Amino acid sequence: MRPMCRCFKLIRHGEPLVDTQETLREPAAGEVVVRIQAAGVCHSDVMLYDGYVDTGTGRKIDLSRGVAAPRVLGHEIAGEITELGAGVSGLKVGEKVVVYPWIGCGTCAYCTTDRENLCSNPRNLGLQLDGGFSQYVFVPDAKYCIPAGNLPLEQAAPYACSGLTAYAALKKLAPMQPSQTVLILGAGGVGLSGVRFAKYMLGIAPIVADIDQAKWPLALEAGARQTIDPNDADASKALVKATGGGVDAVVDFVGTGESFAYGFNALRKGGKMVSVGLIGGSTPVVPATVVFKAVTIQGSMVGTCGELRELLEIAQKGVLPPLPVQELPLDAVNDVLTRLHEGRFPGRAVLTP
Ligand SMILES: [Zn+2]
Ligand SMILES: [Zn+2]
Prior knowledge:
Blueprint (H helix, E strand, L loop, with lengths): L3 E7 L7 E6 L8 E10 L1 H8 L1 E3 L5 E3 L8 E2 L3 E9 L11 E4 L36 E4 L5 E3 L5 H4 L5 H10 L10 E4 L3 H14 L4 E3 L6 H6 L4 E3 L4 H10 L4 E6 L4 H10 E9 L11 H7 L2 E4 L5 H12 L8 E4 L4 H9 L6 E4 L2
Parallel strand pairs: 11-12, 11-14, 12-13, 14-15, 15-16, 17-18
Antiparallel strand pairs: 1-2, 1-6, 3-7, 3-9, 3-18, 4-5, 7-8, 8-10
Helix pairs in contact: 1-10, 3-4
Bound molecules: zinc ion (2 copies).
């Protein structure tokens, strides 16, 4: 008798996920079955649910092709291994793992050099393959199951996307000097992880800009040195003055036209901005200012499987401030997606099926 599996499926973009019960299939050769104990809800789940990114120019980037419905969304997954397909070695039933969801084709130049997150033919969990808003997930290969060690699973799950995204972005700034300045834009789920990691990874307490002052206390708790309102022109002028001409580094966890422009303008000469956020919008960039300021702008898209292993090892040392998570039952998923859509969810929502 196979176990039953309850999951929430995207049937049509923009409509609530559908509560579904089905018999769990047998694992195929090489697959690992994980009983999900924690599944983080990410802002990108909201975009996948909508099926598009709004560029703010009247044009929408279609995401619906990436997610063929019906699909179980959710890509921040941690749980316990319950079954191993034929030929799987190196893992045990009962082991607690975090699942790397950014799985590629396995054969291209990116996939064969541990950059599966850049693969053009992805098999990402929660996008092209069924993901975490479920009681079980099928992981295509044992190498994507990373031991959670001593980490509580509701803390461990968000490392797979929000944590990894922040880690890979900050890694692009390392090494920095303690006298330098880092400006983090956005104190949502991913931005907060960036704030949590900055002190350990860069040796610097970052300045955090967020238009929502309700998020400031969490940012300060996570290790921010100062919080500012990017809409407050005086505060921005004061920031440039206090840093003697601008900050050395910016990580834009927001990804609107406004946030990009704000970060770009806050950079000092020779500074570096890492773009991470995907909220949407656009902004003109004057090429001459890129030249005169001699800045570097780099994009960062989630992270590699190797980076997730590194991050989980660091987290197990207990050196990172905990992520403020709110645990909720699996059937709260539609409500959480709605609240995230409205931008009113402090910290990270983690479903505990
Ligand atoms: Zn995500
Ligand atoms: Zn590939």
